[in-house]
Amino acid sequence: MFDVQTIRADFPILSREVNGKPLVYLDNGASAQKPRVVIDAMTRMYEEDYANVHRGLHTLSNLSTEKYEGVRGIIARFLNAPDEHEIIFTTGSTEGINLVSYAWAAPRLQAGDEIVLSVLEHHANIVPWHFLRERQGVVLKWVEPEPDGSLPAEKVLEAVGPRTKLIAVTHMSNVLGTLVDVAAISKGAREKGVPVLVDGSQAAVHMPVDVAAIGCDFYAITGHKLYGPSGSGAIWIAKDRQAEMRPFLGGGDMIDTVTRDTVTYHTPPMKFEAGTPGIVQQYGLGVALDYLMSIGMKTIEAHEQDLRRYTAEKLQGLNWLNLQGVPPEGGAIFSMTLNGPAHPHDMSTILDKRGVAVRAGSHCAMPLMQHLGVTATARASFAMYNTKAEADALVSALELCHDLLG
């Protein structure tokens, strides 16, 4: 049984006050807080077991290597990946998507070839494809969401043409919480012979993810949203796609042999992992994922969906508040503006005085802001440790915003 108070006790920062008020942390879409088990495990590794990985035969190097490489299997289990060698360590989703852009897409896409994107995408799943547009003449085809923020799979598939070489789509919008049916997109795309890259940065935190069932080719996750440390993450890449990729970064670990005249490369995943990695960061991510799996992603999803329904009803009852799309299916993420000239930055500042942490801005999703007809929103994004009482605190703080700014 899910006991949110027990979960909250695992997160030291949630007991603090901000501006004399109990912290209500609703900026989880940007980065989640860290449980004590992650903090303690990383500290112990630095204090007791740290050394560089792969390169030594001494005891500490072997311990570090064992802990570091063990995370590959944890991530594979978390994503239900068929083989842990399909897990490439990265610093987060941004690096993972750039890896695919440089190592898979750039060598095979030509001027006039197309990449299908949705307007819901985070800049991390936009800018790497703009690089190919600028440098190689690749065409970006955009798919707009419905008025309620949803993105039907058939709408994405309708954008696929004879020159489409890739679909790159989010699993869950970081602005609207939209849940995208990436399994249906992947199935339709496979029938057309088009690979699919999924940005799982938001979805993997809130629900079970099964890359085998989804049927995509690439799936990126980022550690700092998964209650792990910043600078950690991974991308799952199907073996047949790995075989089509050139190395991304050059340096230690990713090579087999180097001479003055030649270089041969290691087999994946090492082929795509150059240099000394974020050893303790990745270890911390593994601890965070074990923690999540011990609770159960279905259990977490049920709690957050209950929060989503409760919060949506409360926010929709405020007739002076503009909710920027509440799709039928999605995460507990709400973007909002006030009627009138009030800026979301002002809203965020006032909420902060009440101890309520939200994010204001474009949320690295400028094409979506343009589509919505706004320059910015205030975003409240919930996590497994949030409560209905905190949703009430958000509403109370928004009412103060209305009184002061409305």
Protein architecture, described:
40% of the residues lie in helices and 17% in strands. The protein contains 15 helices and 17 strands. Helix 2 packs antiparallel against helix 11. Its EC number is 2.8.1.7.
Q: Tell me roughly what share of residues is in helical segments.
A: 40-55%
> Overall pLDDT, averaged?
97
Unreliable segments of 5+ consecutive residues: none
> Strand-residue fraction?
15-25%
**Helical region count?**
15
Fold topology:
Layout (H helix, E strand, L loop, with lengths): L3 H6 L7 E2 L2 E2 L1 E2 L10 H14 L9 H21 L7 E4 L2 H13 L8 E5 L8 H10 L2 E5 L9 H6 L5 E7 L11 H10 L4 E4 L3 H4 L4 H4 L3 E5 L10 E5 L1 H4 L12 E4 L4 E3 L13 H17 L1 H20 L4 E3 L9 E6 L5 H10 L2 E2 L1 E3 L4 H7 L4 E5 L6 H18 L1
Parallel strand pairs: 3-15, 5-6, 5-7, 7-8, 8-9
Antiparallel strand pairs: 1-2, 4-10, 9-10, 11-12, 13-14, 14-17, 16-17
Task: Please outline what is shown here.
The protein is an alpha/beta fold and 406 residues long.
Q: Main attributes?
A:
single chain; 406 residues; alpha/beta; Aspartate Aminotransferase, domain 1; Aspartate Aminotransferase, domain 2; 2 domains; seven-stranded mixed β-sheet; four-stranded antiparallel β-sheet; 15 helices; 17 strands
